[in-house]
Specification:
The complex is a heterodimer of chains A (347) and B (452). Chain A is 0% helix and 53% strand. Chain A has a five-stranded antiparallel sheet with strand order 1-30-29-28-27, with no helix packed on it. Chain A has a four-stranded antiparallel sheet with strand order 2-33-32-31, with no helix packed on it. In chain A, strands 3-4-5-6 form a four-stranded antiparallel sheet, with no helix packed on it. With 452 residues, chain B is of the alpha/beta class. Chain B contains 13 helices and 23 strands. In chain B, helix 10 crosses helix 13. Classes of the chains: A mainly beta (347), B alpha/beta (452). At the A-B interface, loops of A face strand 4 and helix 2 of B.
Chain lengths: 347, 452
């Protein structure tokens, strides 16, 4: 860890700009062209920063009564969705900073939000239901009541949504309002990601394991031995590598060949506290990881999931989110003291 | 407020009608200067306008952690995970559970999730009781006795609606079920906030300060007699009595003063934990070892004791000498017709059985335990009997450790943390078990076998 104590960044990270939000920063989201970085805090503050200069060009506070829970940037970067503890979803114009649409889902927490890949619609959860709305906020679909709170959602295809909750992962055809496939397993699933080709669904479980299924064969596997529940999961763009948190060590499983079953994963060790965010770069096997000790590390991996750190930096306190600019030439990180930091990538 | 210290959490439970809503409202509206985040059940209507009042769905999830199956509140884990991000906005968390809930899963949540364990600490469980109706409730449902058993503080609310006579009868009954709880009477839930928050309920020192006689040592033997003897052969004679067998340990070098008797008792407790050697009438009893006297035959039965030199010996017997008309004689001398009287006799508080299904008992022993034996015994006990053990907590003195260890457990889960240095304090162990149909004798014996 002695390398990390330097105050200057190391390796491929070059100083970008630093700004802040007013409270514990929840997330950062880049617009598609990289010209805007949105940063939100847990108390409902939203700030829009110029991607290159860090200048704030609009901000808003107290947007969600009692707390902001989730954000999602539209694929074209024109709209920005936020949701909160008040059961509200708001769609913002990124350029103007004004709310275009507001939806209320009731009194429960709206903890998950995600735009579809083509940006035509977005999905959200509230308590035991998942919903899909079009760009204008009109409800297109609502799930049946899940057996328990829906903890994660992900688009598995155009018009196809996956939901995770205690004991199950379910896939729905939104257009025809049909359940397509369901996997069951007696555990509390707290996070979920899908491989880019849609065949693998991987979930982090409360019992400190990662459970995944292959949709084509319905086979499932479990990887246990994590120190904490793995809330952070990310596939690389090709679906070859799955990076998982749940520890100070980043554990990377390789899906090449016949898959990770029976193989040793890559173990990336450098953080001194548990991982709090994972994000693969848009292309290649380059991974950014953030941890509760305030460190941000970039790793270049091979197809086995092993690799070395190529850049490292520190922010003031726990890292809550890291995000690559869509061109892969810059990285943003936000932290628990409201710090918003960007770095350029040297090449 | 230091961000490195854990946030204390109080669990508030109690039946519908016990006055929980009244209590919650008072806590939220009173001027006590404390910032409290309240997590209430989904139908709770308290403090709707307040940002730090959260309605929870009370989702109980079954999960396994290795080979231990247990239940936790999945929704609480999510909510507390989110609250951690607003750590600087509050100093306490109060979790209100519905009256129909078994408090086990809520408490277990604080042991099961590591991230929650890092940030929060279970400060205590407060059970609100409707003094006017609890009697019927106890008879009718398991949940109500569980809620009494789980409590660190029992608030007998609506005490103005019952006679002080019935309260005087109710309290001992509740104490039998739960020796650990502090019992408080109230009207309209008008207890000070300090009764509900910052309980330090896992600080056993506080509990003991309040109830000094709470942990009376209980022994596996009922009687001790100290005799002066010389080199020679002696005979211990017993008539018919209440038991076909009786355990005995004869301690060599036993003095008759209080301190020596206490030391001797501690010594014999460990011996009693060993398997007993069965001895038939006419057989020998050697010193400092656990024997089981075979007494099923009719009439007098005698056993032989060989003494090497002049000394005082202590007989520690399972039953009192009187119950078997037990007497000690010298056999190899001229004057063997009169029995030798003990210099000192005393009886000890005997371990007793409980009638109520739900009950509690306390183990108190001086000295150190062997860490490995303790871990092995406790793990096995909780894995096999965990379902019936609601709470376990206390201090343990571990051989080789300079710090006192605090043990606390809920069902199958337990946690052991070092806290203050023993320093000048007498190293001892005090462990309380609260549960249903517990085999007290078995658990005491199991613990005694861990002593060094």
């Amino acid at each position: 860890m002695s390398d990390i104590r330097q105050t200057r960044n190391t390796g491929i990270l070059r100083d970008g700009w630093t700004g802040f939000v007013e409270d514990y920063a929840l997330s950062c989201n880049w617009s598609q062209d990289g010209n805007v970085l949105m940063a939100c805090d847990v108390m409902g503050g939203i700030k829009a920063f110029h991607g290159k200069s860090g200048e704030i060009f609009w901000e808003c506070s107290d947007t969600h009564d009692s707390g902001l829970l989730a954000t999602s940037m539209h694929p074209e970067g024109i709209l920005f969705a936020t949701s909160g503890q008040d059961g509200n979803i708001m769609i913002w114009s990124v350029e103007e900073g004004t709310p275009k649409t507001q939806i209320n889902l009731g009194s429960g927490w709206t903890e998950n939000l995600t735009w579809s890949e083509d940006g035509d619609c977005f999905a959200a959860t509230c308590s035991r239901h998942a919903y899909v709305f079009d760009k204008n906020g009109k409800e297109i679909w609502r799930s049946e009541t899940h057996p328990s709170t829906v903890t994660a959602i992900a688009w598995s295809d155009k018009n196809e949504l996956a939901t995770a909750s205690y004991g199950q992962v379910a896939f729905y055809d939104i257009e025809h309002s049909q359940l397509l496939q369901k996997f069951q397993w007696k555990g509390s699933l707290v996070s979920m990601v899908l491989s880019p080709d849609g065949d693998v669904v991987a979930c982090g479980s409360q019992d400190n394991s990662v459970h995944f299924w292959r949709r084509s064969t319905a086979e499932d596997s479990m990887m246990s031995g994590y120190a904490y529940k793995p809330t952070d999961l990310d596939f690389d763009y090709s679906g070859t590598l799955l990076a998982t948190g749940g520890s100070e060590v980043v554990t990377v499983w390789s899906f090449k060949g016949s898959g990770p079953e029976g193989t040793r994963p890559g173990q990336l060790e450098l953080h001194s506290k548990p991982i709090s965010s994972l994000c693969f770069a848009p292309k290649g096997y380059r991974l950014a990881s953030g941890a509760k000790d305030g460190t941000v590390i970039i790793w270049d991996l091979n197809s086995d999931g092993e690799g070395n750190p190529v850049g490292a930096a520190m922010i003031t306190d726990k890292v809550s989110n890291v995000a690559w600019r869509p061109d892969g030439r810059a990285l943003a990180a936000v932290g628990s003291k409201g710090q918003v930091t960007t770095w350029r990538i040297r090449n | 407020m230091s961000s490195t210290s854990k946030v204390p959490v109080t669990i508030l439970t109690g039946f519908l009608g016990s006055g929980k809503t009244t209590l919650l409202n008072r806590i939220l509206t009173e001027e006590h200067g404390k910032r409290i985040a309240v997590i209430e059940n989904e139908f709770g209507e308290v403090g709707i306008d307040q940002g730090l009042v959260i309605n929870a769905d009370e989702e109980v999830f079954e999960m396994s952690n290795g080979c231990i199956c247990c239940t936790v509140r999945g929704d609480l884990i999510r909510i507390l995970g989110n609250l951690m991000k607003r750590r600087d906005k509050f100093d306490y968390v109060l979790v209100e559970t519905t009256g129909l809930a078994d408090p086990g899963p809520v408490a277990q949540t604080f042991f099961m999730d590591d991230e929650i364990r890092d940030e929060f600490t279970l400060d205590g469980i407060v059970t609100l009781v409707d003094a006017a109706h609890i009697d019927q409730q106890l008879g009718r449902s398991d949940e109500s006795s569980e809620q009494v058993a789980f409590a660190d503080v029992l608030i007998l609310n609506k005490s103005d609606l019952v006679t002080s006579d019935s309260l005087d009868k109710l309290e001992p009954r509740l104490r039998e079920m739960n020796k650990m709880a502090r019992i408080v009477r109230s009207q309209e839930a008008n207890v000070p906030v300090e009764t509900v928050l910052n309980l330090g309920a896992f600080d056993l020192d506080q509990v003991l300060d309040r109830r000094p006689t709470f942990l009376e040592p209980e022994y596996p033997f009922e009687w001790t007699g100290v005799y002066s003897v010389e080199a020679g052969t002696y005979e211990l004679v017993l008539e018919e009595g209440p038991d076909p067998n009786m355990s005995i340990v004869i301690k060599s070098d036993q003095e008759g003063d209080d301190l020596s008797l206490k030391d001797g008792a501690e010594f014999c407790v460990r011996k009693y934990a060993d398997d007993a050697e069965l001895v038939s009438p006419g057989g020998p009893i050697s010193f400092d070892s656990h024997f089981d006297l075979e007494l099923s035959a009719k009439g007098k039965k005698s056993f032989l004791i060989e003494v090497d030199g002049q000394t005082n010996i202590g007989l520690f017997t399972q039953h009192t000498a009187e119950e078997f008309d037990m007497k000690l004689y010298r056999v190899d001398s001229k004057d063997s017709s009169s029995p030798i009287d003990p210099n000192v006799e005393r009886t000890w508080v005997a371990q007793h059985e409980h009638d109520d299904e739900v009950g509690s008992f306390a183990i108190e022993r001086e000295g150190d335990v062997d860490m490995d034996l303790m871990n092995a015994w406790l793990s096995k006990l909780l894995a096999e009997k965990g379902i019936d053990i609601f709470r376990m907590k206390g201090f343990v003195s571990i051989a080789g450790e300079s710090r006192r260890f605090v043990f606390q457990g809920v069902h199958m889960l337990f946690d052991a943390q070092p806290e203050r240095e023993w320093g000048e304090m007498i190293r001892c162990n005090q462990l309380v078990f609260i549960g249903r149909n517990l085999d007290e004798h078995d658990i005491r014996r199991g613990f005694d076998a861990c002593l060094i």
